[in-house]
Amino acid sequence: MIEISLEILNLHDDGFHPLVEVVVFNKLFKAVVDTGASRTVFDKNTIETFTDAGKLLLTDKLSTGLGTNTMESYTLLIPELAIGDLLIDDFEVAVLDLSSINTAYEKLEFTPVIGVIGGDILMKYSAIINYADQKLSFCL
């Protein structure tokens, strides 16, 4: 079992977001652990600062959620994604414009996030979220 510390953000009377640290492109970021997200999604603006935009593949699906069903989505193959000691090689993420989330975070004086860790990873690695202990566990 791999255990990772969670940071629980209090959204000032609007709920809570659990965050984990992730390493992508050899750089440390924060990501929201989102059990309601079917897939892991990274922010297009952030991704484009670390990789050539030509590597983003436009999908034929319009993404739903995030308050819209008309947002163009892309995919990107990430060579290595680390969530604590969990290392995932050659992982395909969805890439969307998450600037509205990061703008809201900045207004609350929170660090922007690279994206969300979704059900694809949480299910595959049998994730357990423990809010009381502020831990995310992966059962391998």
Give the helices and strands, then pairings:
Elements lengths: L1 E4 L1 E4 L5 E9 L2 E7 L7 E3 H5 L8 E9 L2 E16 L2 E11 L2 H9 L7 E3 L1 H6 L2 E4 L4 E4 L2
Parallel strand pairs: 4-9, 5-8
Antiparallel strand pairs: 1-11, 2-3, 3-4, 3-7, 5-9, 6-7, 7-8, 10-11
Protein name: Clan AA aspartic protease
Keywords: Hydrolase, Protease
GO molecular function: aspartic-type endopeptidase activity
How would you portray this structure in words?
It holds the Pfam family Asp_protease_2. GO terms for molecular function: aspartic-type endopeptidase activity. With 140 residues, the protein is mainly β. It has a single domain (21-128), classed as Acid Proteases (Cathepsin D, subunit A, domain 1), CATH 2.40.70. Helices cover 14% and strands 53% of the residues. The strands form 2 sheets. Strands 3-4-9-5-8-7 form a 6-stranded mixed barrel. It is globular, with a radius of gyration of 15 Å. The N and C termini lie close together (6 Å).
What average pLDDT do the residues reach? 90
CATH top level is Mainly Beta
Termini separation = 6 Å
Work out the helicity level.
10-25%
CATH homologous superfamily caption: Acid Proteases
Shape descriptor: globular
Low-confidence stretches: none
Characterize the main sheet: 6 strands, mixed, barrel
Domain count: the total is 1
Assign the CATH topology.
Answer: Cathepsin D, subunit A, domain 1
Q: What's the alpha carbon Rg, rounded to whole Å? A: 15 Å
Note the beta-strand portion: over 45%
Q: How many beta-strand elements? A: 11
Task: Supply the number of helical segments.
Answer: 3
The helix/strand class is mainly beta
Output the helix-strand order. Answer: EEEEEHEEEHEHEE
